């Protein structure tokens, strides 16, 4: 079962950063919830949004505790006891666009899924003598597109880091006709 989980794409528990956490009021509630449960250590696994939100939460932490104390939700002893919030951030992005690691969490399973899909449609494309255009995830990072194009033998690939030149359509049509 653990091997099957490792190949399962996307978040297994279906989580995402909640909309209310984007507001100070939402982060204030989150701080209160952590203090109520005695939690001072967080491990945040996510992409740019989750890690940016975790960093903002860390920056605001002492101010959030002070505000909770001013509102009478926690006492001065709790402010002292929970003065430090330790956060470990793990890049859970599929983009593989983070320095200091060979491959971010999620990249391998995303690439695996892309190759499975290409393998599944290749026979259809060949039997009907058709060309298929696939779009892969990656937002502003072309790593998955580039690596999957290499792995699958794509004839053409577009990546955000290297936008196509003027007249690319004609060049692509010539290449595909060959």
TrEMBL record:
Record InterPro entries: ATP_PFK, Phosphofructokinase_dom, PKF_sf
Catalytic activity: beta-D-fructose 6-phosphate + ATP = beta-D-fructose 1,6-bisphosphate + ADP + H(+)
Cofactor section: Mg(2+)
Superkingdom of origin organism: Eukaryota
UniProt cross-references to Gene3D superfamilies, sorted A to Z: 3.40.50.450, Phosphofructokinase domain
GO cellular component terms, A-Z: 6-phosphofructokinase complex; membrane
Phosphofructokinase domain boundaries: 6-165
Transferase among keywords: yes
SUPFAM superfamilies assigned: Phosphofructokinase
Pathway in which the depicted protein is active: Carbohydrate degradation; glycolysis; D-glyceraldehyde 3-phosphate and glycerone phosphate from D-glucose: step 3/4
Keyword annotations from UniProtKB, A to Z: Cytoplasm, Glycolysis, Kinase, Magnesium, Metal-binding, Transferase
A molecular-function term among this protein's GO annotations: metal ion binding
Any one GO BP annotation for this protein: canonical glycolysis
Full protein name: PFKAP protein
Organism: Picathartes gymnocephalus
